[in-house]
Amino acid sequence: MVAASGLAPPRLAVPCPRAAGRGCGGGHHRVGFLRSAPVALAGPAAAQLRCCASTVDDGVVSAAAAPKPRLPRVVGMGSKLIGCGSATPSLSVSNDDLSKIVETSDEWIAARTGIRNRRVLSGNETLRELSVQAAKKALEMAQVNADDVDLVLLCTSTPDDLFGGAAQVLAEVGCANAFGFDITAACSGFIIGLITATRFIKGGGIRNILVIGADALSQFVDWTDRGTCILFGDAAGAVLVQACSADEDGLLGFCVQSDGNGQKHLNCVSSHVESILSKTNGVPSFPPKKATFSNIEMNGKEVFRFAVRCVPQSIEKALEEAGLPASSIDWLLLHQANQRIIDAAASRLDIPSDKVISNLANYGNTSAASIPLALDEAVRAGKVKAGDVIAASGFGAGLTWGSAIVKCNCFT
Length: 412
Hints:
alpha/beta
């Protein structure tokens, strides 16, 4: 989640060492990780990529306990993207619509952000429904049955239920053999979810994983604050990640980082209201106050500074880990926060504008949904093709940011 303007950068993280198991970033407050080089599969595992549950050497799993065959837990197994999907609410809110609520204009918003419209949940629409629609579309493109999904990762900071939504989503999609959990990392959520999925495949004996990015930040926006209400929209996007042999691995490199010192610049913190119950027995702190959440608060200039400096650095580190030059990138796909940030990153990486994927003008900042939403549109429009290399980067609240270099060798 990033605002419209700003200038000076935060502290610079030290370069990422490429040695396996070492951190990326400098100091105790900013930590990042690069993966080690892939280990090639050998023998029957490389040829078949399958095994019976009884051969999984975990000491407790038996053939009778597992509902279906699992892959061997072999470090070095690759991952590939084989399907994508997205969904958006029906209500479209234009800049002109917002000008009737706050003092702003289409020209002012477009010049500072690149946004002209956004979609917002209304009526009986829910984020869960959008997530289910996006997931089903990804499965349809991938030609994978819901029963064959092993894991569902729901990347969201705004679930319909405070306790998480992955279990409800996978149930409605029909993933009867899967387990799932939520990943909360705001606008970095999808990239972190994608990388997490590949780690489950690499060493966890898992074959098919749905990674869903979905957020409804409109529910936490102060619609009288023109500094934030102009930015955000709601959406969901999903990809199906499938296991493959190491030499087909589509995740070529990645880097993830965080800096909690920047939380003060972008947050949506919990707040409290007085309980309807009165204080009892002279104890001043009981009963507890009722918790809720404040509106999104953002220091736009500081967040902009962070993004325009750290995002290109993150992509450069991921490219270094992949052993690729920036010239090898077919598409630059950033979190859709601000067109000026996207343009600045492309300029630093020397990537021409015709290789930049952007749908920001139509949807605004959809947080964890923005990257898979833009990817799905680009794939279905025929822009992204099999074999294309994408440099994707998410960044936002936390502060967190991360990049992945992905080869889309299975999209048609």
